[in-house]
Design goal:
The strands form 3 sheets. A 4-stranded antiparallel beta sheet has the order 1-2-6-5, with no helix packed on it. The protein has a 3-stranded antiparallel beta sheet with strand order 3-4-7. With 253 residues, the protein is of the alpha+beta class. The protein folds into 2 domains: 92 residues, Butyryl-CoA Dehydrogenase, subunit A, domain 2, CATH 2.40.110.10; 146 residues, Up-down Bundle (Butyryl-CoA Dehydrogenase, subunit A, domain 3). 44% of the residues lie in helices and 22% in strands. It has 5 helices and 9 strands, in the order E-E-E-E-E-E-E-H-E-E-H-H-H-H.
Length: 253
């Protein structure tokens, strides 16, 4: 709920004094700067926010905790506290009060990135599983000789290619300046769900070896779960689609 965030910035001369906390901030424990969405006035929730670039070595910032996650271990995620952190107002991005709008626009690119970045890991997962299935001996043949395994891997590959086509179409239209809120939401929804299906199905074919830490398939099983949560959960994507399709009512702003 972006509109419901509580961190705030009050003006003090030519500066902002920022207070509050941020959680689930990617790379926040090692970042030099943070692009922070804060309330800069007491107006309506969709018109009172601004984006401010905050130097992370500023007095008043406490990097309180590294959050232990089940996956994405190459990227730290932290809990950060801000206590009257002084930042020049010139570090604001764009117009004051337009931060919510800017953030919603940025989400479209982030969601397209989520979809695009999921394609190669799923391709690799399927490739690795095919290679494993061709080597795994059982019942007088190989795992790949089982027709059900062949058909399931073919289905997964088809689904990935369909997502690729959707993602490429959305990216092309976005570059042309078209509003791709609907297509980006579809791609984000599909990539999160499909990553889970691909990883879970392939891990099952690996058997006990799929349940080991070193296996790339097990890594996708852990890391890929974030795809349905980060950047807007599946349910948020469905809510957006319901609105763009004219099924659900849009909240007044």
């Amino acid at each position: 709920d972006v509109a419901g965030l509580k961190s705030h910035a009050r003006k003090d001369g030519d500066d902002y004094l920022i207070s509050g906390q941020k959680m689930w901030i990617t790379n926040s424990l090692q970042a030099d700067w943070m692009c922070m969405l804060v309330n800069t006035s007491d107006g309506p929730a969709h018109r009172n926010k601004s984006l401010v670039m905050v130097p992370m070595d500023s007095p008043g910032i406490e990097r309180a905790q590294k959050i232990r996650k089940i996956g994405m271990h190459s990227s730290d995620t932290g809990l950060i506290y801000f206590d009257n952190v002084r930042v020049p107002q010139r570090y604001r991005i764009g117009e004051e009060g337009q931060g919510f709008v800017y953030q919603m626009q940025q989400f479209q690119e982030e969601r397209l990135w989520c979809a695009a970045s999921s394609l190669e890991p799923m391709d690799a997962c399927i490739r690795d599983t095919i290679e494993w299935a061709q080597q795994r001996k059982l019942f007088g043949g190989t795992l790949a000789d089982q027709q059900w395994v062949q058909f399931k891997l073919a289905e997964l590959k088809t689904e990935v290619e369909a997502l690729r086509a959707l993602t490429y179409r959305a990216c092309e239209l976005h570059v042309q300046g078209t509003d791709v809120t609907e297509l980006a939401s579809m791609a984000k929804l599909k990539c999160g769900r499909l990553t889970r299906v691909v990883a879970d199905t392939c891990l099952q074919f690996w058997g006990g070896m799929g349940f080991t830490w070193e296996n790339r398939v097990s890594r996708l099983y852990r890391d890929g779960r974030l795809g349905s949560i980060g950047g807007g959960a599946d349910e948020v994507m469905l809510g957006i689609l319901a609105k763009t399709m004219g099924i659900a009512k849009r909240a007044p702003r």
